[in-house]
Amino acid sequence: MAEGTDGGFMEKLAKELSQYGQVAENVSFRTMTTLRIGGNARIVVYPKNILALTQVIREIKEAGAPFKVIGKGSNLLCSDNDFNGVVIRLDRSFTEHYFDHDICYAEAGCSIIALAYEAMKNSLSGLEFASGIPATVGGVTFMNAGAYKSNMADVLQEVFVYRDGQLVWMDAEDCEFGYRTSVFQKHRDWIILAVKIKLSAGVEEQIRALMDQRRARRIASQPLEHPSAGSVFRNPEGRAAWQYIEDIGYRGKSVGGACVSEKHVNFIVNKGNAKASDFMQLVVEIQQKVKEQFDVELHMEVEKFNW
Ligand SMILES: Cc1cc2nc3c(=O)[nH]c(=O)nc-3n(C[C@H](O)[C@H](O)[C@H](O)COP(=O)(O)OP(=O)(O)OC[C@H]3O[C@@H](n4cnc5c(N)ncnc54)[C@H](O)[C@@H]3O)c2cc1C
After folding, report:
1. What are the tens digits of pLDDT across the range 182-216?
2. Site to substitute for ligand 1 among 74, 217, 242, 268, most atoms within 8 A of C-beta
3. 120 and 66 in one domain?
4. Is-contact 174 163, C-beta < 8 A?
5. pLDDT tens digits for 227-266?
6. Which residue of 108, 122, 246, 259 pairs with 254 in a disulfide if CB–CB is 3.0 to 4.6 A?
7. CA–CA separation, 264 vs 87, rounded Å?
């Protein structure tokens, strides 16, 4: 339903939800994603705590409205259409973390970069790989994000999840982690609330040096000066996605405001007012050409939402 055609139904839902946390209406996905692309979300809610979150879900289900939990929106390509549903964000209230020797408990809305720095200050090693990923703990767990041959599954012991009306600590072994995959991608209505991470004792200066070195590498190799959603394609078996994109001659290729980065060809950047459709046109052209020339299927790592 378009805004104004739902007989005040969503307005009523927004009012109901506002007792459980901050609510905003008609918020552009451009302000909620690192790519800065997309239409408006009808309702955005920041639940105050777990009890409030369970009530938010109950209200949404009763209303029969669609919902989507998002982190920092750093892996999302939202369509240019409006989303007549509820976006749930945990990055205001679910931001506590605790260290207990080499164990860290962190809520899903924590910034993984901030957490990596906190671990470093506690002389704990294990999160250096994540110190440049502009994401939340929940999003990194959902994606099993990684870099430099490490990923989130390497440090995760347990994940605290709200699923089917129950609060459950799941063992990492039951989370089906693989290359940028997890069980959470199969169960889109499960909500990651927190994680238990096992780190190892290290030397603060050495951890800092490694993080600094990696930050410098990212700055040198990634187009951080433009909005993006990180790597667009997953790496197929045996050869990196960027090599195929290079070989089809797409470095610097643009459609509207979307452009294959000159600096890192597996990034498509928003050079200003790019539409989701511009981005997808480039994606489809790349997939078709790589298939024609190499008989290889490139699959998106960036998630399409609300298409
Ligand atoms: C500059 C840049 C660099 C990047 N570098 C890397 C990198 O080195 N390695 C890498 O792997 N990725 C990288 N990425 C991609 C991105 O940061 C990761 O995919 C990250 O895991 C997304 O986290 P997020 O919090 O932004 O989640 P979002 O993009 O907001 O959401 C991603 C998915 O996770 C789900 N989700 C989020 N939180 C929860 C939750 N609490 N419960 C259930 N589901 C949830 C959402 O519904 C959505 O389906 C990069 C992105 C950018 C922009």
Report:
1. 999 999 999 999 999 999 999 999 999 999 999 89
2. 74
3. no
4. no
5. 999 999 999 999 999 999 999 999 999 999 999 999 999 9
6. 259
7. 31
